[in-house]
Structures are given as C-alpha cells and as structure tokens.
Structure prediction request, 369 residues.
Amino acid sequence: MGRSFISQKKQTKEEMFHAVVKNAIDFIDASIDDLDKRPKNGIVDFYTAIELFLKARLMEEHWTLILAKPDSANLQSFSVGDFHSVYLEEAAKRLKDILGDPIPESALKNFKTLGEHRNQIVHFSHTDYTDAAGTKAGVVVEQWHAWYYLYELLTNKWKSIFIAYQEEIERLNNRMMRQKEFIQARYKELEKAISDKVKAGATVVPCNNCLMKSGIATARHAWGIDYQCEVCHDKGTVIRPTNEKIPCNSCGNEFEFFNKELTACPHCGESMDTDKLISLCKKKYTEGDAWWEEGAPHIAHCHSCEHPKPSVFYIDGMWSCVSCFDRGWQATCCPHCDEFVTGDMERIKYFACFKCEDERRREILAGSM
Prediction:
C-alpha cells in the first residue's frame, strides 16, 4: 500500500464489520436528512450506503473479499483501514461467484441505475434534476425503489447476518415510508396544472416511477406511450397491454398473463413466477416475427431485465418479455456471440449485445494497447 495520511486505531474484524454497517446506516439517514436543502446529495449518500452493505455481507464471509486485490491482503493494514475495497459490480460478482449468494437481477439493475445517477452528479451534472421541488421528488422516488430492494435483502435474504441491526433497519424503513407524504403533496400542488394541460389536449398517463397520474404524453408508438412526469420528472413509457391468454398448467383455465402484478392463477391460485410463465408460453408461442425463419431461435434473452433464461416471445405482434413485461424491441442473433437477444439493433450490429458487451469491451481495449 502507499503512504497513508490518516491514522486509525487497530480494530478486530468484528469491530470493522460493525463500523461498516453503522456507516451504511448513517449514510441512509444523511440521504433522508438532505432531501430539503441538498437533495442531490441524497443520491450520492444512498448509493454509498448500498455499497457498504454489500461490503459488510462480503466481510461476514471473509475480510479479504472486500479488498480490490485479495492476493495482496494484509491483516495489519486491514485492521487500520489501510486498503482499497471493491465497488458495487465487483462486490455483486463475488457474492455470486464465490459465495453462491447472488443479488436478484432486478435489485442489481436498480442499484446500477442509482450508481449511474450518482456518477452523473459527482463527476459532471445531472440534467434531469432542475427545480428544487422536482429534484427532491425525483430523489425521493429513486430512494424508494432502491430501498425496496435493499430492505428485502437486509430483512429477508440476509436477515441472519444483519440480525443485530434489525431495529435500526426498521427505523430507517419508517423514515423512508414517510416520504410518500411529500410525493402526494407535490401531486396535489400540480394537479390543477396537469388538469389544465388535459383540457388543452394533452394525454396524461400514470408514472411508472412515482405512481402518480402525472405523466404528460410526449410520443405514441405501437408498443406504448412515452411520457415525462410532472411530479418526479421521470421520462418513461407506458407499455401497451395485450389481452392474450395462456392456459394454467394446474386447472387448465385460460388467464391474461401479461401483467407484472400477477403472482398466481386467478382461477385456482397456482403460483405463477417468471419461470412458470416461460414454460407455459413455450407451448403456445412457437414462432417469431416476419423476419424469423423456421428452425431459428424464437425465444430471446431480454436486454432490459437481463433475466437469466430467454424470456421474450413474439406475442400479439410484438416481442414481449414475460419477466419485466417490456415490449416493442426488436430481436436478433448477435453477430458477435450468436445469442438471440433484444436491444438496439445498431449497437448490437456494430458493437455488442448485452450478453457479450463486457468481453467485446475487453477485446477492444486490448487491441488499442
């Protein structure tokens, strides 16, 4: 290690674990405290807390797992905090590959998105955050989404590891839930302005982000309506639904399945998860679009949610994912790795698909050296 300019007392591994968890809790408190005066700081602090909780989980298994270079591990340096630690993606990779304890894909994707917001704020600027009230609303909603996944990890999947901190975690949860009042109040403030836009001909849709009916339509497509939210400034798309049905494997009755809120067959109560929907859709949707050739793959990997199994079928005239319920993307065989995937066709053609982009990036960097 290089020269350290900070002197710290030596700590045991247990003391270090406690210090990391308490630090993570402090960052979440700071994230909520800053909402009124420095809301953008809330994103930075919240993302820092997520990384710290992941590091604490790794530390619980073995202290060397949080080191950027475990092969240069030194317990003496570690005990005084003199080391470089992993960032989110590497921490997630070690949880999956070394501990066999992967973070759910939806949670990891959310954490990465929050990290992108954090990087924009710290290293450049964030154009989505403009007026103070809108900035606070946007940050509050970002916090909600990230907290939903983090809370699930800390109180369910990893509860035994963080059992000593459950009271503090519940206190944070209560603080987070109280922020809903702010979103509702902001919607009330803007309700008349939104109503005036509707009278002037605008279309309003529910916002996927803050869940208020405050998204002003900006464009229409076959797959849905693009909008910008008046409350939280989110830019998103309301996906056009499909009324297609598949038969339940248990009772045989057909039901509308393209619904992210669906958890069970409405007729018999048989549980329905992504893998079950994939299995049922395989029996009904056996072909692709007009570009599809007999014998070619007809179930694509989803670039949007990155579900481990192919989850995108050609349903009701569109490629449709039964994991994240996104629709309207094109599907193709990647020319670089031959995987059948959805995504931006130009990016896939000239660079890579989401399945092989890391490898392609390494190849390009190696070739430029």
